[in-house]
Write a structure and sequence with these properties.
single chain, about 425 residues, mainly alpha, 18 helices, about 50% helix, globular, binds s-citryldethia Coenzyme A
Amino acid sequence: MSGNTSQLQVGDKTVDMAIKQGSVGPAVIDIGKLYAQTGMFTYDPGFTSTASCESQITYIDGDAGVLLYRGYPIEQLAEHGDFLETCYLLLYGELPTAAQKADFDYRITRHTMVHEQMARFFQGFRRDAHPMAVMVGSIGAMSAFYHDSTDISDPQQRMIASMRMIAKVPTLAAMAYKYTVGQPFVYPLNSLDYTSNFLRMCFAVPAEEYKVNPVLSRALDRIFILHADHEQNASTSTVRLAGSSGANPFACIAAGTACLWGPAHGGANEAALKMLEEIGSVDNIPKYIAKAKDKNDPFRLMGFGHRVYKNYDPRAKIMQKTTHEVLNELGIKDDPLLDVAIELERIALHDEYFIEKKLYPNIDFYSGITLKAMGFPTSMFTVLFAVARTVGWIAQWKEMIEDPSQKIGRPRQLYTGSPQRDYTPIGRR
Ligand code: SDX
């Protein structure tokens, strides 16, 4: 590499490729002309060394354990701001003034109700459906109810669709929970802040007054901030790819929700809690550490490891602190799952295998303990992740749509199947 170009020798050809440097972080080699000049593709399953786009939203330094939303460290946003302030920041690129924040809160609050007919849409699901299945279906169904904000070429419609999703996904999430527990849906209350409103829609019942616990509401609001965006992760890349075809925003967010559900991604918080319950006690930890290290055993420590973080996930540290805050507020003195989690982390962080592979707790390791203590069933954990990540998906989708160089995403492949051959009639096979 020299200056701002790199050269690739392919046979007797030398291909010059531009090097682009961002504001911070790794530079990129622009390989856009490689196929035209060499007839070859690059090959990078899982995209471990591939930048799919240029973005100004979120920056992660995996080695240093740094996470910035529009340049602001996650620790400062979680400490000083609220989730809707983070939503404004991710969408517009700057922290809001007091007037802008008040206007944004007002607009979001007044979009929290869903079309009344969506309540009947839920009746089509079995009561024992996984809430994530309900979320994928109902978010996708929003394009059948709000088709007056699906024209992606209209900036006004793009913004209305964005507001509607940030505002209505928590309502749909609470409805998904109520539906599975057989309780009546609870309408949003405009006098409550975003997260208190969500808690009330989940846990209020018509039979009595529901009083929001401000400590729990603040804790969940902070958890939403931690989960809001995370660069080009699998579900965000899904949203971008779906959006690149011109699909409507509701369909794109539904696609991202489906991808998030996987246990290697957003489903890890549910899987991590089930793993802690399976381990059951501190005495069983060595057996599970051995399983995690055994190449022939598919078992992995859920909530551990990360494609980008090769240091402690900064969100996990804040998550751990929030766990203690919530357990203290609820008077839960000794949670056996927390004891297992803390001892598992201690052992793993001193184990050669985890040190050599740079496996640290990620955001999903502690979140399940906190959410369970708050009263959410395990099946709702990934739904809560989706509630928070909706703004990140939308901000990334909006950035892609507004990028003048945007085109449909269409990767190629290394073909190792059969070369061309002729059809054999069935009688001669
Ligand atoms: C999220 O991308 C994001 O930003 C995601 C996310 C976001 O905010 O959007 O941060 C949210 O998805 C967090 C990650 C949640 N997933 C889990 O906790 C599931 C458990 N973790 C692993 O499945 C894994 O660590 C991944 C999927 C998270 C990352 O996998 P990679 O980057 O593809 O790494 P890898 O599978 O190639 O693992 C490298 C090595 C392997 O060993 P070798 O083949 O090199 O010998 O580390 C081992 C793996 O076997 N390894 C683990 C492990 N994670 C990786 N071994 C035991 N337990 C684990 N958890």
